[in-house]
Design goal:
By secondary structure, the protein is mostly helical. The chain is built from 20 helices and no strands. The longest helix has 60 residues, at 3-62.
Length: 531
């Protein structure tokens, strides 16, 4: 396969995952926004507390191994060593199952203790209902790692959409049913979480059906195959540093919740008031996570693509792939960052349904988190680039430094009554700025041909900055004209911003004709944009 075809496959895989992510995020909005209205800020806080604990166990179970599988399978497939591909899958499956069983038991059996540790004792039902999901996620990750290592992003994309649809239907139905039957907000939050567990089961069954067909078609080759012990060692050498970094950051996030909840309670807020603020912050985090989720497809796609190019000694092509990833990352993240920062009030009013003091708090939180999006996106991509080159330890160190800075900032800032919970997103911003800077320095030091990442972001930054200024003026004009509709106050500036941003991105050449041609229907896109 030619280098151009490989790069095309990378961008097409990214586009496929991005389309699936768009569908998933729309469904997720249909799930979480009404869910917030049904179970309230307190219930939504319980929901997110369960998710934070689940994410720690999830990262321990799945953060490093899918990346390790993807890299090793990509290497073996590039050399047409399909016997080794089978051995990698079989070894990873055993490791995944062991981790998944342990994680599920911990979360299910110790749900009350975990809820108490987070200073939200009523979150126990949500935590317990989510427990079995750890094992199911491990099973899904085994299949996804196998497909991604071969550059096939379709099963992952379809499984994500299936997961989102099932979660919406089952989660909403269970939350409404339990709230009606028991009038218990904690149990209703648990019902919403039950939808996540059922959705993972459906997704696992789909991936298994696709995997069986693909695995049976692998060619039979006679090359020497590594032992299970050597293969496991190879997987773990890559996976453990990545897992430590990812799980460590999630543990720090969980500790962050414990810290700021404790600081709020120590300032005289009641448990209900602190839970309410926690719920508002959780809602703004949900909005923050939406744009960041569109960067994940890029990281998933570039790791096997770059690994394959390095395996075949195509360092210049690997560099081109990394710079394309940076441009696409900037095109997605920059307008989202500026847009959410300047439209924090109308966005949180529409999506969260907040008014008065709650709206003012949500808007302040969202403004800071909006700025953080650009830095978080670059952290994700720069980390993936280093992992693809085999430098898996340095991102861990960088994440740890940023995480410690975050905890220190949250502890100091939230302890100040005049700042309060606003100190939490400020800590998040400082964390991602720190990690981003350290990652960029590390790439310059470690890579033989480092990509020009910052240079490839300048044009999208300028386009988004001009767009942000115009969007702010449009929103202020609508308010001054007496427009009271939340939908119009949000939709009109976004529509204007989207049009302006596309025109500026084309004019300033933030996206190139070459990038367009490597995307599905790229010729039509390039023609439409007159590139």
């Amino acid at each position: 396969m030619s280098d151009t075809q490989k790069k095309q496959n990378f961008l097409q895989g990214t586009a496929l995952l991005a389309m699936a992510t768009a569908i998933v995020k729309i469904i997720g909005a249909l799930y979480k926004i009404p869910l917030n209205a049904i179970i309230g800020e307190q219930g939504f806080g319980y929901f997110n507390t369960a998710y934070e604990i689940y994410n720690v166990l999830l990262m321990i179970s799945t953060a490093g191994l899918p990346v390790a599988m993807s890299r090793m399978i990509s290497q073996a497939s590039s050399l047409e060593h399909y016997g080794q591909v089978r051995r990698i899958y079989a070894t990873a499956r055993g490791i995944f199952l062991a981790l998944g069983i342990v994680g599920s038991l911990l979360m299910t059996c110790f749900c009350r203790q975990l809820a108490a540790f987070q200073n939200q004792p009523d979150a126990w039902a949500a935590i317990g209902f989510l427990g079995p999901c750890v094992l199911l996620i491990c099973i899904m990750s085994t299949f996804r790692g196998y497909f991604q290592g071969q550059g096939n992003m379709l099963p992952t994309s379809i499984s994500q959409v299936l997961e989102a649809v099932t979660k919406l239907i089952v989660g909403m139905a269970a939350a409404l049913a339990l709230l009606k039957l028991t009038s218990s907000v904690p149990l209703a939050a648990g019902g919403a979480i039950l939808g996540v567990t059922v959705s993972c089961l459906v997704s696992s069954l789909y991936l298994f059906s696709r995997f069986r067909k693909s695995f049976d078609k692998l060619p039979v080759t006679q090359e020497p195959v590594s032992s299970f012990a050597d293969t496991a060692k190879g997987l773990l050498v890559i996976a453990i540093p990545i897992t430590i970094g990812s799980a460590g950051l999630q543990i720090l996030t969980m500790l962050e919740t414990k810290i700021y909840m404790g600081r709020l309670l120590s300032q005289g807020y009641s448990q209900a008031e602190a839970d309410g603020m926690r719920g508002i912050y959780a809602m703004t985090q949900t909005i923050f996570n939406m744009p960041c989720a569109f960067i994940t497809p890029i990281t998933i796609s570039i790791i096997p693509a770059i690994t394959s190019q390095i395996t075949l000694c195509n360092l210049r092509e690997a560099k081109a792939t990394e710079e394309s990833a940076a441009r696409i990352t900037g095109l997605i993240s920059m307008p989202c960052a500026f847009g959410l920062a300047v439209l924090a009030e109308p966005v949180t009013a529409l999506l969260g349904g907040y008014t008065g003091e709650r709206l003012a708090l949500a808007a302040r939180l969202m403004t800071v988190l909006g700025i953080s999006i650009a830095f978080n996106a670059m952290v994700l991509v720069t980390t993936a680039i280093m992992q693809a080159h085999g430098h898996v330890t340095r991102p861990v160190i960088n994440m740890f430094v940023g995480g410690v800075l975050k905890l220190a900032a949250v502890y100091v800032l939230t302890g100040n009554p005049s700042i309060g919970i606003l100190g939490t997103p400020v800590g998040t911003l400082l964390c991602y700025v720190c990690i981003c800077a350290l990652n960029l320095i590390s790439i310059r030091m470690l890579l033989e041909e480092p990509p020009a990442l910052v240079r490839n972001l300048i044009r999208s930054f300028l386009s988004a900055a001009i767009m942000g200024l115009l969007v702010r003026l449009v929103w202020m004009g609508l308010k001054a004209a007496g427009i009271g509709s939340r939908l119009l106050l949000c939709a009109v500036p976004i529509a204007v911003g989207a049009l302006v941003y596309v025109l500026l991105a084309v004019k300033l050449k933030a996206i190139t004709r070459e990038d367009c041609l490597l995307l599905p229907k790229g010729e039509k896109i390039a023609k439409l944009l007159r590139l």
